[in-house]
Amino acid sequence: MVEQQQQKWIYSKELFFQIILHILVFTFYAIDKKHPTIESHQFAFFLNYAIAALFINYFLLPRFFYKNKYWEFGLGLLTVFLGTIFIEEMVLEKIYFPDTKGKRFLGFFYTLIDVIPVTVILSGLKFGWDALVKQREVEALKLLVKESELQFLKSQVNPHFLFNNLNNLYAYAIENSPKTPEIILELSSVLRYMLYECQAKLVALTKEIEQMKNFVNLNELQIEARGEITLETKNIQSNYKIAPLILITFIENAFKHSNASLTKNIKIDISIELLENGILKFICKNNYYQQQSNTDSLTQGIGLENVQKRLNLLYQDAHKLKITSDENWYEVDLEIELNE
Predict the structure, then answer these.
(1) Are residues 134 and 185 in the same domain?
(2) Which domain holds residue 297?
């Protein structure tokens, strides 16, 4: 129903466009400085050209040209011009100019000079209109594909996060750790945010930072006294918004690989600053024990690949991501241009 209404709206706009176009073209065709009046024969001749353009616009273009049948289109175009010339020379001129033009045929090319300008203008502007409509349809389709891909990528975040943390929770439960209830509470808080407050395309930057702190607290409980975690924020403002669950993935990656490769002296430094020009500066560094398999896994996996795709879709020309690693340190340096 909505699609039908949109089609009717497009057709209505096109009809209005064609009416205005024909009035303007006829005005320029019929009126000049020497003869500022409109005569009856000019309506008849212009109607002949307009009918030819109508046939080109709504039959030849959609039936042949838009389907890449160029030979058929060319043959149809030639037929239209011959028919238009025949009507002008053999009918209209004999009616309106029986004593002058109607007495003799001046030649095909001579008459074609009168026919081509009007028909080309009317058909050319119709072709331009069709191209504009098609371009808008392509852009709408691209947007739909982009939205679908974003929803798919976002849907992968929650299971990925839940899978990792349930494994950790299971280990604490086996050991009957007294921290198990606290971990469950922190996990519940983060999941509530992911499930209910991340449905929008953008969330308040302050809200996202708050959940990042909850996420860090959750993972800090698992590290206990085996390392040091720092999270510094500066100039964070609530009037700026960010796509949800972008930064948390990098932090999760840091905890995952530090915790997996080190039994002590774990160090993770996280810095988040909103610069004066609205650029969010995010740096996340973590140490790890270098192994070939571990080094390869740092730049792979569902989470990291997911967030890189989302950055390319959401902030295509508005972000800079630099990931570096050496023997013992892995660093993510990300800048995102945020909107208020």
Answers:
(1) no
(2) 178-337
Is the pTM of the predicted complex or chain greater than 0.85? no
In a domain, residue 169? The reply is no
Same domain, 196 and 102: no
Q: What's the domain count of the chain?
A: 2
Q: List the one residue out of 277, 273, 283 whose CA is nearest residue 251.
A: 283
pLDDT of 331 over the 80 cut: yes
* Mean pLDDT of the 46-63 span: 85
CA separation for the pair 340, 338 (Å, rounded): 7
Query: What would the mean pLDDT of 221-250 be, rounded to a whole number?
Result: 83
Cβ–Cβ < 8 Å for 249, 311: no
Say if residues 313 and 332 touch (Cβ distance below 8 Å).
Answer: no
Same domain for 312 and 261, yes or no, is yes
